[in-house]
């Protein structure tokens, strides 16, 4: 009997539910609520698709409603496109009779691809509105996007449909050589601040040519792209001191996604490669971020000067140097998946007033790695004739941020003078006797916090409470810090002269 009663109850429930008219709706009355009244899509380059942005629409009433039309004000001519609760409508532009249940909401996802000619010529903004209903019930949500003009550099397409290639590491990769007399762009070996540049594939510098980046130039690399400076070619980055946070005179290398979501994502492009046999390089006032290996420097024929340069958020290395010669001053590197600075296969290096930090979230990274060998090379070892660090900070989130990988088959010469160093593990290894080995270590501050201003935002400035304050040796002083501020004596360690942080 109990069984029959259960079946009867179930039948009644089913009969009532079958009578419900879920799709009986009333017309919208113009009382929709929105998660925002204006959707700001971050800056995009002309004709490059944006990220996807979200708008949520709420029906606060007790009635299921039908919105007669959801559309862009510019209709089918709009450069925006959207989906409404997963529906694509008429080319992502116009949607009719959209149902929204009582006390429910729907999602609208919005994207755009627009040309600079579509934007307002005075402010380069491209705008439109999403319209809900019409007449007296009309409601609108504004859309705003800044369209940025740029010079686009990319491989040509061959007659057989394949892309132009250049050879790197013995392999053909998508790329092209910069031309002094390009029909569209003129001299591509001189990058100016007039417009940003967007590079697809590898931009190669021809043999015996020099590529120059003038102060204020902005270079954006697409996925799997980079700069390749080959044999007998040269790189000159001529940034200058900036006076505002816009870094107006800095040369900036980064990815081509301008949305704030991508501002600190590593690995968006590959690298700047300075190939074996390239020469006469100079890098001043460069900010490089979000690469795989920021600077990949290989057995260059002459000393590279790197000054007042910042490298951040690289998925492998900030600088990977193989048997090369570098003089670094006021250099800052942070957040790199393997090592902020890795000098391998020997070479000759001098770093003064540099900050090497690594707060990558792993247990295997280093701020600084030194080695005189490299697997797969012939011979496998090369002399490390000098690696000197004066008035530097070597720090990070790991227990040990300094690594020496010695091979006794080749010389390994190094010295740290007046440096703050993170190396917390007690060890009997003779290579890490920071207090007693005066041949390699002098005036080392061990495991004291430099108190960077905001390491997560790559702001490695210090103030007077830092353990690095006034601990430098005046004999090694660089008169101006990375920001162009005069150093006091005795100088602070690292790339920044101490200042009071904003409250």
Please describe what this structure looks like.
A hairpin with a 6-residue loop joins β9 and β10. The longest helix has 18 residues. 40% of the residues are buried. The protein folds into two domains: 123 residues, Immunoglobulins (Immunoglobulin-like, Sandwich); 326 residues, Pectate Lyase C-like (3 Solenoid). About 4% of the residues have low confidence. The chain is 4% helix and 42% strand. By secondary structure, it is mainly beta. The chain contains one helix and 37 strands.
Structure at a glance:
The chain has 503 residues and is mainly beta.
End-to-end distance, in Å?
Answer: 77 Å
Overall pLDDT confidence? 92
Largest sheet: 27 strands, mixed
So what's the overall shape? globular
Taking pLDDT < 50 over at least 5 consecutive residues as the criterion, the unreliable ranges are 4-10, 12-22
How many separate domains make up the residues?
2
**Structural class by SSE content:** mainly beta
Q: In the CATH hierarchy, what is the class of the largest domain?
A: Mainly Beta
- Give the proportion of residues in helices: under 10%
């Amino acid at each position: 009997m109990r069984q029959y009663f259960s079946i009867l109850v179930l039948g009644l429930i089913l009969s009532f539910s079958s009578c419900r008219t879920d799709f009986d709706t009333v017309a919208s009355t113009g009382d929709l609520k929105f998660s925002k009244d204006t959707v700001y899509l971050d800056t995009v380059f002309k004709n490059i698709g944006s990220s996807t942005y979200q708008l949520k629409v709420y029906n606060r009433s007790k009635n299921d409603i039908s919105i007669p039309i959801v559309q862009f004000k510019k209709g089918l001519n709009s450069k925006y496109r959207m989906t409404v609760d997963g529906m694509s409508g008429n080319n992502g532009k116009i949607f009719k009779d959209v149902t929204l249940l009582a006390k429910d909401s729907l999602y609208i996802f919005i994207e755009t691809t627009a040309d600079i000619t579509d934007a307002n010529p005075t402010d380069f903004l491209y705008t439109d509105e999403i319209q809900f209903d019409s007449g007296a019930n009309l409601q609108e949500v504004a859309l705003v996007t800044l369209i940025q003009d740029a010079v686009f550099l990319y491989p040509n397409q061959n007659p057989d449909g394949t892309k132009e290639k250049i050879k790197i590491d013995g392999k053909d990769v998508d790329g092209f050589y910069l031309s002094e007399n390009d029909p569209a762009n003129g001299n591509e070996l001189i990058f100016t601040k007039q417009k940003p540049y967007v590079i697809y594939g590898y931009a190669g510098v021809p043999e015996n040519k020099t590529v120059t980046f003038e102060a204020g130039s902005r270079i954006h690399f697409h996925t799997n792209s980079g700069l390749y400076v080959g044999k007998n070619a040269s790189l000159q980055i001529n940034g200058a001191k900036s006076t505002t946070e816009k870094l107006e005179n800095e040369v900036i290398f980064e990815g081509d996604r301008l949305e704030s979501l991508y501002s600190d994502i590593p690995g968006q492009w590959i690298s700047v490669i300075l190939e074996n046999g390239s020469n006469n390089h100079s890098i001043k006032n460069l900010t490089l971020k979000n690469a795989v290996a920021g600077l990949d420097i290989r057995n260059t024929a002459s000393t590279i000067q790197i000054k007042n340069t910042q490298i951040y958020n690289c998925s492998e290395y900030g600088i990977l140097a193989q048997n090369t010669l570098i003089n670094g001053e006021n250099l800052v590197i942070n957040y790199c998946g393997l090592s902020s600075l890795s000098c391998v296969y020997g070479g000759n290096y001098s770093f003064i007033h540099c900050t090497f930090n690594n707060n990558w979230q792993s247990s295997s990274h280093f701020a600084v790695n030194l080695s005189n060998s490299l697997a797969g090379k012939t011979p496998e070892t090369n002399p490390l004739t000098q690696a000197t660090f004066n008035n530097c900070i070597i720090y990070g989130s790991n227990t040990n941020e300094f690594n020496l990988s010695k091979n006794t088959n080749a010389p390994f010469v190094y010295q740290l003078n007046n440096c703050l160093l993170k190396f917390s593990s007690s060890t009997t290894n003779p290579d890490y006797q920071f207090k007693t080995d005066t041949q390699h270590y002098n005036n080392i501050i061990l495991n004291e916090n430099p108190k960077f201003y905001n390491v997560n935002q790559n702001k490695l400035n210090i103030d007077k409470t830092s353990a690095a304050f006034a601990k430098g040796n005046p004999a090694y002083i660089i008169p101006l810090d990375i920001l162009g501020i005069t150093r006091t004596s005795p100088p602070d360690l690292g790339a920044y002269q101490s200042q009071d942080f904003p409250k």
